């Protein structure tokens, strides 16, 4: 298992209930791939560097999770099917926790 973090930018017009449902779906996808979500941090609505869908703001969510590197592509496929995800970035988290 490798530590990863993903920053997801969601549509800022989503209700809190819908946003929580989307995060729950992400957790479910990771668990179905035999991974584990370690931490979810809601960064809130922030200004975007450039417009996406004629909007200058997005709802940022940062999630730390563990997953087999061979299964990351399957996770990407699931994320791409979610129409409320505007952008996302997955990166290895090489940070050593003390």
TrEMBL record:
GO terms for biological process: translation. InterPro entries: Ribosomal_bS6 (IPR000529), Ribosomal_bS6_sf (IPR035980), Ribosomal_S6_plastid/chlpt (IPR020814), Transl_elong_EF1B/ribsomal_bS6 (IPR014717). The keyword Ribosomal protein applies. Belongs to the bacterial ribosomal protein bS6 family. The lineage of its organism: Bacteria, Bacteria division TA06. The keyword rRNA-binding applies. This is Small ribosomal subunit protein bS6. SUPFAM superfamilies: Ribosomal protein S6. Keywords: Ribonucleoprotein, Ribosomal protein, RNA-binding, rRNA-binding. It comes from the Bacteria. CDD domains: bS6. The gene is rpsF. Binds together with bS18 to 16S ribosomal RNA. GO terms for cellular component: cytoplasm; ribonucleoprotein complex; ribosome. One of its GO terms (molecular function) is small ribosomal subunit rRNA binding.
């Amino acid at each position: 298992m490798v530590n990863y973090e993903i920053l997801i930018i969601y549509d800022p017009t989503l209700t809190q209930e819908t946003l929580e449902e989307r995060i729950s779906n992400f957790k479910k996808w990771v668990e179905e791939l035999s991974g584990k979500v370690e931490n979810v941090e809601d960064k809130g609505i922030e200004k975007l560097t450039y417009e996406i869908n004629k909007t200058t703001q997005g709802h940022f969510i940062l999630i730390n999770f563990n997953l087999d590197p061979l299964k990351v592509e399957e996770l990407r496929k699931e994320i791409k099917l979610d129409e409320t995800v505007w952008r996302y970035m997955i990166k290895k988290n090489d940070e050593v926790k003390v």
